[in-house]
Structures are given as C-alpha cells and as structure tokens.
Amino acid sequence: MKKIAVLLSGGGSNLQSLIDSQKVGYFKGEIKLVISNNKNAFGLERASNNNIEAIYLNKEDYPNNEQYDRQILSLFKQYKIDLVVLAGYLRYVTPVLLEAYPNRIINIHPSLLPAFGGKNFYGSKVHEAVYQRGAKISGATVHFIDEGQDTGPIIIQESLPLDQDWQPEEIGQAVLKIEHKILPLAVKYFCDEKLTVKNKRVYIKA
Q1: CATH code for 1-101?
Q2: Does the 107-206 domain belong in CATH 3.40.50.170?
Q3: 119 pLDDT exceeds 90?
Q4: Residues of the chain with CATH 3.40.50.170
C-alpha cells in the first residue's frame, strides 16, 4: 500500500476526487498527509473531515524556498511518503524535493501540455488563454514534475472538444471533470507500479 501526500493551495476538489477513489478501493494507496501554503485552503478542511493529517506551512516562517521544502521533506520522511501529488499547488517545487522524489511527484494541469503551460499558466488563467486563443479542443494532463514548469514527462492526457459559445468558466468546469477522472487513474498506475520513465517519456505497462 503506497503512502500518499497531497500538496495544495486552494479548494481541493482534486483532493476530494482522490479521497473518493481511495474509499472505494480504486487504487492501492492511502492519503496520509495534506500540506498547504494557504491557511484558508478548503482542501485542508476536506482532509480533516476525512481523518487525514492536514498541515499549513506559512512561507513567512522560512528564510527561503529551499528551507520551506526541507520542512516538507521532513514531514514526508516522518509519514514515509511514497508518492507526492500536486493538486492545485501554487508554489515552485525546489530541487530539495525533486532530488528526494525523482519521478515520484505528479501534477495535474488543466490543459493539453505543452499547450497553455509554463509560467503564469495556472487555474482560471489557463482557461482564459484557451478562450482568447479560440482553441477548438482543451483537456487536462497528469505529468511527473521536473526542474522546469509543466515540462515533466507526461503520464496521461484526455481531451475534449470545446463548444464555440463556451466562456472561460464553462471551459474550466468541463476540464475539471476530466481532472477528477485522470488524476486518480494516474495514482492507480503509480500504486500498481505500472509507470516507467525513459528519456522523458512515460511507459505504462499493460
């Protein structure tokens, strides 16, 4: 049984999709820890409501990002974490965590990477850009993270055609449904040890 930590900054709907999947035995893992950089993140309440350790870490208590991530790493070691899931986590992950968890930190992104990814592309900003560009399809991506921004090896993607009359909010709602589907699936693949990374490509065992 893999032990999972989730890092988030907001409402935690993707966390909820993982909690719901765990309850029905969808993947062979257990969410042991939820950490947020936002004390008002509803995701912390979701965790507490499901008897999951929920911790807020204030960035002002640490001199730099590396020290902040060292505290997170200390918690990961304490809880013997195997997999880290970034679910709407609006902080840069430093090499402190990347080197400790190579190909063991996954992120959910609300577009079909590499389109609409990278610096300043997060949350509603992605859907606004998709709308402004007049894109005909969008979707979501689950990927391992690396030292870049949204540049890590892609695990799963799913697309959907966009209605030409949809506003950014409607695009976001449709994409979120995909996120709630493919993030638990990626966790399932990881827990079943079906993922292999070679030359920045992810191979999924049949």
Answers
A1: 3.40.50.170
A2: yes
A3: no
A4: 1-101, 107-206
Only one residue has tokens 């993270």, namely 145
CA-to-CA dists, residue 146 to 44, 136, 160, 181, 188, angstroms: 26, 29, 26, 23, 21
- From the list 97, 107, 104, the residue with the least C-alpha distance to 195 is 104
SS3 state at 174: helix
Q: Give me 133's structure tokens.
A: 């560009």
Q: Tell me how crowded residue 182 is: count the other CB atoms within 10 A of its CB.
A: 19
Output the CA torsion sign for 206, 183, 115, 175. positive
Token pair recorded at residue 84: 């880290």
* Angle CA 32–42–173, to nearest 5: 105
Beta strands in 23-147 (DSSP E): 29-36, 53-56, 83-86, 105-109, 137-144
For 87-159, where are the alpha helices, taking DSSP H only? 95-100, 124-133
Residues 6 or more apart in contact with residue 17 via CB below 8 angstroms: 179, 180, 181, 183, 184
Q: How far is CA 160 from the centre of its chain?
A: 20
Would you say residue 123 has pLDDT above 90? no
- Any idea which residues carry the catalytic annotation? 109
Band of pLDDT at residue 8, cut at 50, 70 and 90: very high
Task: Name the 3-class secondary structure at 53.
Answer: strand
Identify the band that residue 136 occupies on the pLDDT scale cut at 50, 70 and 90: very high
